[in-house]
Design brief:
315 residues, alpha/beta, eight-stranded mixed beta sheet, globular
Length: 315
């Protein structure tokens, strides 16, 4: 049977914007590559008359173990990752790039900079822990318009990887609504479920998730150690970063995005995507609703939907 999902998928179009603010959260293995891909997109958007802002947020410094898995060199050991990448981008493309050498926080980094109806916020998640993703989930929730029929003010794209596999997910709402609400017409999709909606395990601590078959303490080693042991691809992080850059380019520059999830495996050479069809989004929403306890669903009807959703995913 031939899969025609891509042909039938609706175009995912953001609201009209004059200004777009990018926040790359995490500047490690994936973030150090993704930041440069986002910078290239910023350059092209600026050439088309858009106002762009780019901020890189990470509290860590470059260590010798980060080389060459991350996009740093030996001369940068000891420097803050976020500052290093920001200065490199500013010098290379003339893009004034901000940085914060601290943990991401919505109240500090996003809220003071939200202004104007034609501004779009893009959260680029390149983190490796549930606490940071919870903050990204919260930030997306805080940016949501009050009325569900309004176009999203913010989008969250999240990249993650294992030994040889990776995934990139993009969405704009933490609310669980009817699939029809996600479409303007049959051919136009105006919003997508957040990464944390169709993959709620992203917000759970690692020790709470079931360990895969064959798990050993060796497989729990750090990413740099896994690379040296030959148990993690040297190229998986840059592959995730390429997918992030491609999805954002399709969303904001070429208006050609027709998918909201990409999964790939470097060992087998396979990849697959979830496309923005009503059937696919409806299936995702049904599965997400099944993860919510009845009491939570009942409370959602009485109060603000996003409050109930936040309570569930922050448990």
């Amino acid at each position: 049977m031939i899969d025609t999902s891509f042909v039938r998928a609706a175009l995912v179009l953001p609201k009209e914007f004059n200004k777009v603010s990018f926040y790359v959260v995490g500047a490690g293995g994936t973030g150090s590559f993704a930041a440069l891909n986002v910078a290239r997109l910023c350059f092209e958007l600026r050439e088309r008359g858009k106002t762009v802002e780019l901020t890189i947020i990470d509290s860590d410094r470059v260590e010798s173990s980060n080389i060459p898995r991350s996009n740093f060199c030996a001369a940068e050991i000891g420097r803050f990752k976020a500052q290093t990448l920001a200065e490199r981008i500013s010098q290379a493309w003339g893009l004034e790039t901000g940085f914060a050498c601290e943990r991401f926080d919505y109240e500090k980094h996003i809220k003071p900079n939200v202004s104007g109806s034609k501004q779009t916020t893009i959260l680029v998640g390149c983190v490796d822990n549930h606490l940071a993703r919870r903050e990204l989930h919260l930030a997306l929730q805080k940016c949501e318009p009050y009325y569900s029929n309004e176009a999203p003010n913010a989008w969250w794209i999240d990249g993650g990887n294992g030994k040889f596999s990776g995934q990139v997910l993009i969405g704009s709402t933490v609310k669980i609504e009817d699939a029809e609400d996600y479409f303007t017409t049959a051919s136009l999709c105006r919003k997508l479920p957040a990464p944390s909606i169709f993959h709620p395990e992203l917000l759970e601590p690692e020790n709470a998730k079931p360990r895969p078959r064959g798990f050993t303490e060796r497989t729990a080693a750090s990413c740099p150690e896994l690379v040296r042991l030959g148990e993690q691809s040297l190229n998986i992080n840059s592959r995730v970063a390429v997918e992030i850059g491609e999805m954002l380019t399709a969303l904001l520059l070429t208006n050609s995005l027709k998918r909201f999830a990409a999964y790939f495996d470097l060992e087998s050479g396979t990849s697959r995507s979830l496309y923005s069809t009503k059937e696919t989004i409806e299936r995702v929403l049904i599965e997400a609703a099944q993860n919510v306890k009845p009491a939570k669903l009942k409370r959602r009807k009485k109060s603000n939907a996003t409050t109930a959703t936040r309570d569930f995913y922050a448990r």
